[in-house]
Structures are given as C-alpha cells and as structure tokens.
Amino acid sequence: xxxxxxxxxxxxxxxxxxxxxxxxxxxxxxxxxxxxxxxxxxxxxxxxxxxxxxxxxxxxxxxxxxxxxxxxxxxxxxxxxxxxxxxxxxxxxxxxxxxxxxxxxxxxxxxxxxxxxxxxxxxxxxxxxxxxxxxxxxxxxxxxxxxxxxxxxxxxxxxxxxxxxxxxxxxxxxxxxxxxxxxxxxxx
Length: 188
Description:
There is one protein chain. This protein has about 190 residues and is α+β, with helices and mostly antiparallel strands. The protein contains 2 helices and 7 strands; from the N terminus they run E-H-E-E-E-E-E-E-H. It has helices at about 55-60, 160-180, and strands at about 40-50, 75-80, 85-95, 100-110, 115-120, 125-135, 140-150. Strands 1-7-6-5-4-3-2 form a 7-stranded antiparallel beta sheet, covered by helices on one side. The longest helix is centred in the C-terminal third of the chain and has 24 residues, at about 160-180. The radius of gyration is 17 Å and the shape is globular.
C-alpha cells in the first residue's frame, strides 16, 4: 500500500527471532510442529471506496513497511518478497498476553480479477482471507473481505471483535487511499 505520508516515518526496532519456547534463536530459520486447537471464526467486512477499481487494487496490494502505522499499529512490516503475483511479509502484533507476537503473511495477487488471497501464520492464530474488488462506478469501488481465523491456544476472540478490528483498519486504509487518490498521488 503506497502511503507517502509523514505519519509512516517511524523509528524501527528489530527483535531477535524467538523459538517456540520464547528463547532467542541462534539461527534465522526455525522449524517446529504447530498443533491447532480452537474453533474457526469466519467474518466478513465490506467497504465502499471512492476511487477507481484499478487505483484501489494497485494501492491496496502495494505492501510497504509503513502500512501498519496508518491505523496506529506499533510495529512495521518487514517485506520479505514482493512481485506482481505474490507478497510475503512479517510483522509483530500485540498478543493476547500483551507481548509482541510474530506473524507471516503470504499474499497471492490476482490483478486480472482485482482480487487477492491471504494465508496468515501467526504465533497465536492461523487465518485465510479472500479480498475482492467490484466496480460500482467510474470512481467508486466495493471491497469485500471474507476472513477465517483459527485461534491456536485458549479461547479465541469473538467474530465481532475480529470484524470491529478489520473494519477499523480498513476505515483507516480507505481514508489514506482516498486522500492519495484525491491529491493525484500514484497508487504504487
């Protein structure tokens, strides 16, 4: 997501890679088995965005390190791989215990259908997401999101909690996207 706002300029703190026991790892790669318990929570979010569909797609799929700061996230994304068809990034987010938790997102991009698919692997949850844009007019686009989240440990937050959080994040993204479009900034 191409954000050229001063708000995306933050000091970046790096954190060491942790193994499943929470100890600092001596290598950059770790392999371990993850058991998944808990129920699957499915939720949907829909947003109308005042910008043309191609602009919305290009903006929303131009993942950057500063994207999380647009909605008040504390940690930057780390872009691991980015092409026209795929994006992989990692980031920390606040866990249920209040401590930073690592997550990696794999995004498959489908520019011809203005859609993308998310596979999310986090310390606390697994998630898949389907994002689809629909043209509502020359300068109006609908974003439909369907996310499925599976909490790994303990009781998962409610679908209402996930919907509220996703709505808040996409409200902030939509505001920044529309501001960029109105000001004539490039989408990527």
